[in-house]
Design a protein that fits this description.
Chain lengths: 340, 340
DNA sequence: CTCCATTGTGACACCGGTGTCATGCCCTTT
DNA sequence: AAAGGGCATGACACCGGTGTCACAATGGAG
């Protein structure tokens, strides 16, 4: 029955509701005696301000929206975990918005979301972080936004990412250091900037180690398990099989592992396999996948924290709102020295 | 710049704001001419009502909360999918609330959620659907709620479930029909009612087919992959190994598969394995897992739809707010006839 | 002792909708 | 013709907070 309103508190404390409001918002110019009286009333009446009324007065909703379209449930969950943490810290609510659309339909859909909820800000996760039409649309509607894991920092918006290219470089170098020279690569979905970045890291590692790049060892996937199966079959059908496969994410890597075991290719004895993302499946299959762990929760947490801070403080000190966090190489059983 | 408010619409259409409100809410007693005039104004001004103001006037938030604590990311995502669908249809927003607490801390946490957001209703998913203290707490605070997949229908609240016991019965009978007699069972987390139900289905199938129940073939897991590994090692260490293992969910079943392959036990030639839930991992490992698919999205969708309908219509017709949906047996490669 | 700046406080309008009630009108009914 | 009922509409208060401004009390400077 928490029916306490600002009026009942004011009456109880014997002050005006404006004064109660001042105490609530920790405004200056309230005498200590009055403040304590009001705070006692808060406790006695078990009062909590009504966020809806506050929202109406401020023309704010205290809602942050999070847009995603990602086949990986674990990625989504991690994004949500970080997002919720940041929102709760700042007394905001999080609205999740999975969304498979593209193009104008996508913009209309986001528009509807904004108008329906009057959200205060939006977090974009891949692949939306890189879609220019969305960024421009949000700017035109004057909706603050932050980007998680964008491919480029060409924008002056809040952006938090990890270094996919560097991580892909490292994992490729790991394979090279194990003696692998014929390393197949399975690309991700072309909409995702990480697809380009990871491929680029792979290429740089080959180049640095003077290993010839063989286009036939590269196949295009789309991050789905199914696409990984297709690519694996193609790759294992080559007359000269590679000794290692680096897939752009763990689902595809898991599919490679499955196809390998269907073909009775032993992993890692005959084939080394590496993935990316450190999805749960990476340690739920046997052998466990060597992969890259990204700080997904932390990226999202940071992005939202910065976003909320940005429209809370009107000081235009504008620190550079862009940050790159460390990813981590995780070595499991799916990679080993080349045998020959 | 959608700045249109009900006042600007009223001015534009040359009527009072109350009349605009009437058109908005499709109330009777508005002349056709007036209605059309106002609707034209809506279009011309690109007007959308402000849900926050509406919420304040109604003392409603148009927010549904969803509480869960489930290790399975895919289950959570499916719950969210169904929940969002229902909420959007009814113009509500969904607030997700993952929550690992128990006991009083949990109640305090839920209380804080309710007060912070003023949500209109709550959906409970396992294991919270069965926690009496939560149900009583919500009743005492007069918060409407719906339960997804509760173990018992002892409550008069909205409840939507699928028949876990029946499904476990069917999958056990499948194994029996393949000639298995020594069927190990791995239980789930004791907090979840499905743990009891699935075990009970297993027992009933044994009994019906006159197969002796052997307690040493049952081990207690907790739905996690890790617990499945432990149980599998125990089971495969028995002097008389079973010919089949039925794990209470797919993560544990996948772990059984991993341990089997570490021990060079061929699946399904030497060991048949069955899971439950049809999680993505069930088809991402090799061989694919025979399992049970539950209509998780539909259960959640139905629960929320009923919940919102309940507090929308004040007619006290009270249809029975409880529903049981069908689960489906999915046969993949991990189960086969017993060889001996 | 005045003057003025600062501090503490409350009255009041406002955010954008909804509920209540009064009013004026038209059409029956007797 | 008078009375009564239903329909269409608007004035106004209200939901629970916040912003603006006025004003009294206080205190330090001249």
């Amino acid at each position: 029955m928490s029916k306490a309103t600002i009026n009942s508190v004011a009456k109880y404390a014997g002050v005006s509701k404006k004064t109660v409001s001042r105490v609530l918002n920790e405004e200056p110019n309230v005498s200590t005696a009055t403040r304590e009286k009001v705070q006692q009333a808060f406790k006695d009446l078990d009062y909590r301000p009504n966020p809806i009324a506050r929202g109406l007065a401020h023309n704010r909703s205290f809602i942050i929206g999070c847009i995603y379209d990602n086949p990986s449930k674990s990625y989504i969950t991690r994004v949500q975990t970080g997002a919720l943490l940041a929102c709760h810290e700042k007394n905001y609510n999080l609205l999740i918005h999975p969304c498979e659309l593209r193009g104008q339909a996508l913009l209309d859909n986001i528009d509807a979301l904004i108008r329906r909820t009057r959200l205060d800000g939006l977090v974009l996760t891949p692949p939306f972080s890189d879609q220019k039409d969305i960024l421009e649309f949000l700017k035109s509607k004057n909706i603050p936004y932050a980007r998680v894991a964008p491919g480029t920092l060409d924008d002056d918006s809040i952006s938090v990412r990890s270094n996919d290219e560097q991580a892909a470089f490292e994992i490729t170098e790991l394979l090279i250091s194990l003696g692998h020279k014929d390393i197949a690569f399975i690309k991700g979905h072309p909409d995702h900037s990480s697809t380009t970045l990871r491929f680029s890291g792979y290429l740089k590692a080959l180049k640095k180690n003077n290993i010839e790049f063989k286009p036939e060892l590269v196949d295009e996937g789309n991050f789905s398990y199914h696409s990984g199966e297709d690519s694996a079959r193609k790759i294992f059908n080559l007359s000269k099989k590679p000794s290692a496969v680096f897939a752009s994410n763990d689902y595809m890597a898991a599919a490679v592992l499955k196809v390998a075991s269907q073909l009775s290719l032993k992993v890692p004895e005959q084939i080394s396999i590496a993935g990316f993302d450190n999805a749960p499946i990476a340690r739920h299959i046997w052998p466990g996948l060597t992969t890259i762990a990204q700080p997904v929760e932390k990226m999202t947490y940071t992005a939202i924290s910065k976003l909320i801070e940005q429209f809370t403080e009107q000081d235009e000190k504008i620190p550079l709102h862009q940050e790159t966090l460390e990813a981590q190489l995780i070595i499991r059983e799916s990679t080993d020295k080349v045998k020959s």
